[in-house]
């Protein structure tokens, strides 16, 4: 058995250069307090979101779904109701599902943008008992980003 590698990638890595990400959208790792309620093929579950971008998300779940399955999502966040449809892109048994957004309404798009802005905020790590940021003033411009 022989292993084939991309020598160009290896030289960049060994030279201390970072290898560019394949990701189209920047993501937020381990967004604190973001959960979704989801439904796939008549089965329902609630899961913690492990990472999130405007292109998709990874949810922690023991449930396994087939790649290509359609999932309906409802985000449980204080930005308001965010509903989306997604497709399973990859499965990590015992860990979770990688989902790609396929549909998001015009009303829910700005709410997802607001959620992403809040999660990227430097004060997101300190929250009060309601899950709201302490000591941070959120203005309309915060949500417009």
How does this model look, in words?
It is a single chain. This protein has 145 residues and is of the alpha+beta class. The protein has three helices and seven strands. It has a single domain, classed as Thrombin, subunit H (Beta Barrel). Helix content is 18%, strand content 36%. The protein has a six-stranded antiparallel beta barrel. Strand 3 and strand 4 form a beta hairpin. The chain starts with 6 loop residues before the first helix and ends with a helix. 17% of the residues are buried.
List keywords for this structure.
single chain; 145 residues; alpha+beta; 6-stranded antiparallel β-barrel
Strand order of the largest sheet: 2-3-4-7-6-5
Helices and strands, in N-to-C order?
Answer: HEEEEEEEHH
- Largest sheet features: 6 strands, antiparallel, barrel
Strand portion: 35-45%
According to DSSP, the number of beta strands is 7
What structural class do you assign from the helix and strand content?
Answer: alpha+beta
